[in-house]
């Protein structure tokens, strides 16, 4: 066969493209990537992926290696998360899929239970800090979303959740911990109250599941807690697997069977699976399987202890920076940092200016917008850090960067949403006056993005993110969401 392009040329182009990516290794990006710092683990994962490259993970009866690997990963996860033999589960492609399946299962159990099958719209109850994957689940599966306001530290009062429990609640979700603030939700109280009322309780341990078992001073949150009916835990976070692997564990075989979809009613092969995808790669499963076998609980514990040391040290460093503060009582290797408004304005460090400035020093932190809760209270804008084992290798340089960046932007006023809005062109302001953005067509949305200076999305994100985050906070959410859809959609449109 004569190829259009030679493999070597194609790969050369790919490596050039990869050069432009944020660095996935070395501890310079403190979100999205979970680097064990162990090159041999990456090699092992790559070899495992290669070994199953042609396998179709759809059918574990045809490709029996898939069944063996999945069984072993689930067994490991079940032991780690305090489950007994009544806990069963599935390996999924990621946290979002695990969360979607928890919601789908709970919805179907709710519908099917009771003396007469329930009708109407079931409700999903959770603190407002619950991961956005649950908003997506509710959107996909037709539930009503009931988000309960949290305190300034991202902490929810169990009584606020319990007060809203009712017959129409199909699922209450708590996090161990939450992504945005690393807040540990009151799992024991909420699960007990849910169990009393026959309501399912999911613990979203997507980020904590593979690290909290080795963390000190953590309130009970796993299957040892009565009333917990399911747990999600991402292998591709603190299980150090390449992207595409998570587990959803369910208490009770009958509950878990509801997760499955099966049909023989078409002229093709019977479809029977517990996940959202059909044909799928077995690569992430094989990589995750190989990595947990290599690390075992001892290896995971050692990596977690490294994360804990780095987290403690960064907490001290940031706690010592005048003008910034650590939000709430974070549990696990993540921190949310906000502006310390208890000091005079000229001594404050705006959390978003700080993040942009830290980037100048070679580290990428994640900006999180402020949020107005349903009771009118406001959760402040924060900057997020996820700490991984590799953080230890750069801890001194990182700490110095965090301190220096704060010194460089101390006293710089936060970007004023009002001032920013005043600079917008007339057409943008007109759209803002009409927050019902649904009818916005693609061309109009693109025009607005251009007017906001975000037209050339193929150039990547702007150097400084603080103005963008201020804009996101200032504009009506439906309009922002519509514009972001346009931005992302145009990013991958073939060139004209
Ligand atoms: C990351 C995360 C998710 C979603 O996981 P993805 O793997 O990104 O789909 C859900 N919940 C929490 C708490 C998370 O940290």
Automatic annotation (TrEMBL):
Family matches, as Pfam families: Pyridoxal_deC
Membrane recorded as keyword: no
Keywords: Lyase, Pyridoxal phosphate
Signal peptide boundaries: none
GO terms assigned for molecular function: aromatic-L-amino-acid decarboxylase activity; pyridoxal phosphate binding
Segments passing through the bilayer: none
Cofactor: pyridoxal 5'-phosphate
Gene Ontology biological process terms, A to Z: carboxylic acid metabolic process
Residue list for modification N6-(pyridoxal phosphate)lysine: 237
The keyword Endoplasmic reticulum is annotated on this UniProt entry: no
Family stated for the protein in its record: Belongs to the group II decarboxylase family. Sphingosine-1-phosphate lyase subfamily.
Protein name: Glutamate/tyrosine decarboxylase-like PLP-dependent enzyme
